[in-house]
Amino acid sequence: MIQIALQKNLIAANGDMLLDIDIKIKEGEFVTLYGDSGAGKTSILKMIAGLMPADNGLIKVRDKIWLDTKNNICLKTQQRRIGYVFQEYALFPNMTVKENLLFALEKGQDKQIITELIELIELGELKDRKPEMLSGGQKQRVALARALVRKPEILMLDEPLSALDHAMRSKLQDYILKVHKQLNLTTLLISHEMGEVLKMCDKVLVIEKGRITRYGNPIDVFTSKQVSGKFQFLGEIVEIEKEDIIYIVTVLIGANFVKIVADTSDIKTMKVGDKIVVASKAFNPLLQKIN
Amino acid sequence: MNTLEGEIKSIHTNGSLSLIKIKVKELLFSALVVETPDTASYLKKGNSIKIIFKETEVIIGKGKEHPLSIPNKIVGHISMIEKGEILSKIIVNTLVGELIAIITSEVMNEMVLEVNEEVTIMIKTSEIMLSK
What we know:
The structure holds two protein chains of two kinds.
Chain A: E1 2-12, E2 15-25, E3 30-34, H1 41-49, E4 56-61, E5 64-68, E6 73-74, E7 82-85, H2 97-103, H3 112-120, H4 136-148, E8 154-158, H5 166-182, E9 186-191, H6 194-200, E10 203-208, E11 211-216, H7 218-222, E12 231-243, E13 246-253, E14 256-262, H8 264-267, E15 275-280
Parallel strand pairs in A: 3-9, 3-10, 7-8, 8-9
Antiparallel strand pairs in A: 1-2, 1-4, 4-5, 5-6, 10-11, 12-13, 12-15, 13-14
Chain B: E1 2-14, E2 17-24, E3 27-33, E4 48-53, E5 59-62, E6 72-83, E7 87-94, E8 97-104, H1 105-111, E9 118-123, E10 129-131
Antiparallel strand pairs in B: 1-2, 1-4, 2-3, 4-10, 5-9, 6-7, 6-9, 7-8
C-alpha cells in the first residue's frame, strides 16, 4: 500500500489554491491523475518525487516513510525509488541511447538491467544513436527506459505522450502498459485524454482545484449514471448533422469514428466537443469472424 | 430516447441473464439484461429505475389487439406526426406519458396513420435498457 497525504499552498493563475489530497494506492495499480491545467497534478508528482516541498504531508511506500513533515522526515529525491518521465524528452544530447541509460545507473548497480530494458522496450537498433537521430516517439521510449534503470517502486509519467501524434501515442501506451505489468510497477500518469485513461488505468483520480473530487474505475467515474448496456464506450462528439427528421451524430471513440442516430430530444443538451457515453445492448451487435 | 420511470417488481435470473419486470404507473414492462443483482447493485426489488429505449426500436400497430411475441405493449393515441422523406416521427400519448416512434415514411403511408388514432406501441424486452 502506498499512502500519500499532501497539503500545500500553491499560487495558481487565479489566486492562491490549497492543494489537499489524501489517497491510498495499491501496489501494482495504474492510476491516472485527470484534471484541468493548474489543478495541481504536476505539483502532486513533484512532491512525491521530492522535487517540491510539501507544507504538510505523509508519504509511506510499503513500510518505508518517504515524507513525514510532523517528524521532520523527508527523503531526498535520490533516496526515493521513483522513475519520472516528462513531456519534454530531457536526454543528454552528447550521449548515445545506451550511454544515456548507463548514466542513470546507481553506483555499483549491475549493468544487466540496461540489457534487459533495451530488450523490453525494443531499443536494440537505436542503442548507438544520439538523441538528435531519434524521432519524438523513440526519444520518449528512451526516456521511459531511463526512468526504469533504478528499478523504481513508483513510475510517474507527466503527460509523456502529449507531444506525439496519434499512432505514436498508441504505440507508446502499449510500451508503458508492458513495462507496468512486467516490472510490477505502481504507475501514476497525468493525462487529459479520456481515451488514454480508459485504455491504460485501473483507477482514475479527478483533481479539481487541488482536491480529489472523484476516485474510482474510469467507467464509473466518467459516467454519471449507470446504464445496463453492455456495449458501452466513452467518446467525443465530432459532428451533429440533421438528416430528414433525425440527427446523425459522429462520435470519436479511441481512434475510430462511429455514427449514431439520435432524436431531437437527445440532441437538445449536446454539442460538438461534448464527452458522451455510447451505449447499446449486448443483444444488438453482430459478430463476424475475420479470415 | 424514450425514458420512463418505474419500480422493479420482480427479477428472474438465470446465469448472467435477468428478466426484470418494472411497473410504470399501471403498466408492467419486461426488460432482458445481461446483468444480475450481483453485477448491478440497482437491480433490487422495490428500487425505482429508469427504462430507456430508442425511438427507432419502437414498433407501432394499429388498434389494440396484436398477438405477437412482444410483451411490452402500450396503447395510446397519436398526438403528432412529423413526416420526413424516408423516416417519420410519431408521438404517441399513452398512460405512461409521451412515447416517440421513428418508422419509415413508406410504412406509415401504407398503414394510413393519423393524428388521434388509437395505436399500440411495442418494444421487445431485449431493446430496453435500465438505468438508475
